[in-house]
Design brief:
By secondary structure, this protein is α+β, with helices and mostly antiparallel strands. The chain contains 14 helices and 27 strands. The chain binds glycyl-adenosine-5'-phosphate.
Length: about 550
């Protein structure tokens, strides 16, 4: 178990360092010391993430055939897209429940003035000199042991030679297992009992629109793209005349003021979502839920996450919201997690008519929903729905009217990108120009999402080889992202492209001068084939598909 954990953690460190070294990801505002929870995509990263979003959009929206039912679908259906604003009317968040319910519990430390997420602080019970204290920590898992030991020794004023006077009662546990905090040593505290009781903390970022700085101008950065789709449902129906079943898709930034962003880009404060709200009749909704759950799982597998690190986890009945008849998470065993743990890539939720009804009526079933209606002094609700009729009249017999039910496959573009990066990382050996096997790092990214599809090299910088290679580069450039490189030994150039995940390298060599052929080297199999220069684009295009 520990060996597996160490191997995963060292693999993760190598991935993080490759991401920085090769320009996939940088910490935001790094020259000023960085800002926690925000990440910038470098030249390779921006292409990778764009390809992930484009592949999703193409497979889910633009290449979708509205006329025929795809395999496994209960019937044919339509797919359209939207691009909504990040700031919306504040009432949207009241009716969606985010204003009242979208919070985490946090604890503050009176001594260090720091704030922590209650369920993310961990620690262990230490005993020494007849005293038992819970030593809390908020560092990365691999540093927990060292951090708690060092601070416990300092607290009990022990020197290294007194280590055997300190004993641990049980393993690491969450702070949520501790009832009272008077015997807790906070993660950055020197004294006991400095943590406050857990308090609610809303995760939405607040800002002010226009010149008004008071509450009248208050607005929130969207914590999900989904609500833009719900509030435009009627606009889409009226402007496109599409019928149900209908999926509306959106890709865009979302913002959450996560109390403890961590694990590289996995939990960020600014991130991108790829969401579909799929509207259908209540009777068919469960079949559609099953369809989307399986379809989305297949998508990740087709895009390269086919290893045993991927799983589909159905929520148990007691985990479901009252309006939901099913929710499943697609999860990936990221190497920064403990062995056996999985992190969510995407949730597929059956949301019933919760969202549309809430935007129509602004109130929910008081028996089953925890939202409480706030009342004005006159006894009228302080927040209301839009009052718009968001129900659907089926134009085909039996022409019934109903509030559509919604299936929501909600994915994170950054988490998917991170999973593809983690899955792609391999270390193996490849021959150099003298045929000697050399260690290499290779990013086996699916060719569809690889930042560059091919690199073109002249074997040497003479005999007209660079001119031929440059012409091939210029001919390929309009078709896909290509890179030209003539510097250094060709073996080193191959290895640089392996690290960038470039699936094909085209080399102009001595034979090119005789028969106008070049080699195409396959990143994964290392196989080299010879093709005519003017067939290069076609051969690579076929292989990319
Ligand atoms: N509309 C439903 C919704 O937003 P969610 O489970 O909160 O559901 C959906 O988020 C997806 O968005 C997650 O599965 C994850 O991929 C991504 N996501 C959520 N919070 C994130 C964060 N702080 N950082 C990066 N990605 C996040």
């Amino acid at each position: 178990m520990n060996q597996a954990k160490d191997a995963d953690q060292s693999r993760m460190q190598k991935i993080v360092s490759l991401c920085k070294r090769r320009g996939f990801l940088f910490q935001s505002s790094e020259i000023y010391g960085g800002i926690q929870g925000f990440w910038d995509y470098g030249p390779l990263g921006v292409e990778l993430k764009k390809n992930v979003k484009d592949a999703w959009w193409r497979d889910m929206v633009s290449a979708h055939n509205d006329l025929d039912a795809p395999a496994g679908a209960p019937s044919a259906y339509s797919m359209v897209g939207l691009d909504c604003t990040i700031l919306m009317h504040p009432q949207v968040w009241k009716c969606s429940g985010h204003y009242d319910l979208f919070h985490d519990y946090m604890v503050d430390c009176r001594e260090s003035q720091k704030r922590y997420r209650h369920d993310q602080v961990r620690g262990r019970w230490a005993e020494c000199k007849d005293q038992r204290i819970f030593v809390a920590t908020n560092v990365e898992p691999e540093e927990e042991e060292e951090d708690t030991q060092r601070r416990a020794m300092k607290f009990f004023k022990l020197r290294n030679k007194d280590l055997d006077r300190l004993s641990w009662d049980g393993g690491f546990a969450s702070l949520t297992t501790v009832d009272t905090f008077d015997q807790v040593l906070g993660p950055d505290a020197k004294k006991l009992g400095t943590l406050t009781e857990p308090r609610e903390f809303n995760l939405m970022f607040k800002t002010f629109v226009g010149a008004l700085s008071g509450e009248e101008g208050a607005a929130f950065l969207r914590p999900e793209t989904a609500q833009g789709i719900f509030v435009n449902f009627k606009n889409v129906l009226d402007s496109t005349r599409v019928k149900l079943p209908l999926g509306i898709a959106q890709v865009g930034k979302s913002f959450r003021n996560e109390i403890t962003p961590r694990n590289f880009t996995f939990r960020s404060r600014e991130f991108e979502q790829m969401e579909i709200e799929f509207f259908c009749s209540p009777e068919e909704s469960h079949k559609w839920y099953q369809y989307w759950r399986d379809r989305r799982m297949n998508w990740y597998q087709q895009m390269g996450l086919s290893s045993d690190r991927l799983q589909l986890r159905e929520h148990d009945a007691d985990e479901l919201s009252h309006y939901s008849t099913g929710t499943a998470d697609i999860e990936y065993a990221f190497p920064f997690l403990d062995p056996g743990d999985y992190g969510e890539l995407e949730g597929i939720a059956h949301r019933g008519d919760f969202d549309l009804r809430s935007h129509m009526e602004g109130k929910l079933d008081p028996d089953t929903n925890p939202l409480e209606l706030e009342l004005n002094e006159d006894g009228k609700p302080r927040w209301k729905g839009s009052g718009q009729n968001l129900s659907y009249r089926n134009p085909d017999p039996p022409n019934e009217t109903y509030t559509p039910h919604v299936i929501e496959p909600s994915a994170g573009a950054d988490r998917a990108t991170l999973a593809f990066l983690c899955e792609a990382y391999y270390e193996d050996k490849a021959p150099d120009e003298k045929g000697k096997m050399q260690e290499r790092v290779v990013m086996r990214l699916h060719p569809r999402i690889a930042p560059m599809k091919a690199a073109v090299f002249p074997l040497v910088k003479k005999d007209g080889m660079p001119d031929i290679a440059k012409q091939i580069y210029l001919d390929l450039k309009p078709h896909f992202n290509v890179f030209y490189d003539e510097k250094g030994a060709v073996g080193r150039r191959y290895r640089r492209q392996d690290e960038a995940g470039t699936p094909y390298c085209i080399t102009v060599d001595g034979q090119t001068l005789e028969d106008n052929t070049v080699t195409i080297r396959d990143r994964d199999s290392l196989e080299q084939i010879r093709v005519k220069v003017d067939e290069c684009a076609q051969v690579i295009r076929e292989r990319l598909q």
